[in-house]
Structures are given as structure tokens and as C-alpha cells.
Amino acid sequence: MHHTASPHARSAGRRALASTLFVIVMLAMIGCGEQRLLVIVRDDARQHEREGSFTEALADYQEYVSRAPTSLRGRCDVARLLVILDDPKLAREHMEIAYSLAPNREKVVAQYCETVFLTGDLDGLMTRLRDRAEGSASVDEYLRLAHWALEMGDIDEARSALLAAARLAGDQRVEPYIALADLAERLDDPEEAVRRLRQALYVDIEDQAVQQRLRDYGYVPGPTIATQPE
């Protein structure tokens, strides 16, 4: 015999179902609440870093990039902490990703170079820097190449890069001539240093540092001793 549930029973059933759904929703909300907002993760990481708790900071930054894998800042943060914790090889992996995301952003390129240098892959770094310089025909890229060549003690590579930078700069940029003067002084070649400083003075007659360096060599800086770059 078929029995029809009373209105009271149906009402009780609906209340029980509603209560069950409420519990499920609340549990889901609690579960979601266990995962910090990304902005909180980053704030916690920075706080740990300020306190010198680098392992905890790294864990926070790693959580950040695991949830936001294309975050340029996140990758750079993880790499920076890994270098602090003496793991440049793993840091490089993150900087390779960051570099692929922003190969022309100066801060990223600078951190990338520093990180690769720390891994000891000097040939890999120089190949990348040569490709950048030759591919862009940029004064700044040749200056970067020269800087890292000097860091590695490769004088010939540095000189070649600086000469390329000077050719590209002509009389529009002073930096290559100052760098060539620095290199000459490093090699104990005062005559070449003065020649390059005189070229620098031609490019920027108002450069106070160049003027002082020429005075140190016994010259009175002014238009009469400025020399046009070749």
C-alpha cells in the first residue's frame, strides 16, 4: 500500500537537506580560506625576508610562483632568494623563465646575467651576451658585454666590445670612451687613457668627472684639448 508523506515530513526533509547543503558550503568556504590570497603570500614573503628568515621567505615565494607561474616578479623573487641560500643553479632555472618573459627588461637582464655568472657557466653567459650585442647593434649591449668580459678577466673581449660600442656611439654617447679610459688605466697605459678622456671631453665638454680626470693627468680641460672620436 502506497503512503504519501505528510506535509510535516516533507518539510522536515527539506530542512534536513538545507542543513546538509549549508554544512557542505561552509566546509568548502573553510577549505578555500586555508589558501592565502596571492597578495598575502607576497606580503608574508617580504616580511620573512625583512626579518632574515630566508627559508620561510623562499617557501612563500615558491608558493606564489606555483600559483602564478608566469609572474615575472615572482620568478625574480624566487631566484633572488635561491641565490641568497646558495643555490644559483636552481635560481637560474627561474631566471631563464623570467628572461623568456621579458628579454628586454633591464632589471631582468641584469639579474639574469648575475645569476648565470654565479653558476659558473661563463661560456653560456658570453654567448648570450654576444648574441644580444650583435643582434641589436646597441651601445648599451656592447657595454654590458664588456662589463661581464672584464668580470671574467677577458681583456681582449672587453676591449673589442668597447671599441664596437665606441663605433656605434660616435660623438653621441660618452660612456664608451670613459670605459676605454678605465680599461687603459687598468692596463697601466696612461697615454691611451688620456686619449680616450679627451674624446670623452669632446662628446660632453661639461662632464665634471672627465674634466677632473684630465686635470689629474696635468691637463687643463677645455675645447682646445678635446679630440673628436675617430
Taking all residues together, what is the mean pLDDT? 89
Query: Judging from the principal axes of the Cα atoms, what is the shape?
Result: elongated
Largest sheet: none
- The helicity comes to over 70%
H/E element order:
HHHHHHHHHHHH
And the CATH topology of the domain at 36-112?
Answer: Serine Threonine Protein Phosphatase 5, Tetratricopeptide repeat
The top-level CATH class of the domain at 36-112 is Mainly Alpha
Report strand %.
under 5%
The tally of beta strands, per DSSP, is: 0
How many H/I helical runs?
A: 12
Fourth-tier CATH superfamily name of the domain at 36-112: Tetratricopeptide repeat domain
Structural class: mainly alpha
Terminal Cα separation, in Å?
A: 111 Å
* Radius of gyration from the alpha-carbon trace, in angstroms: 31 Å
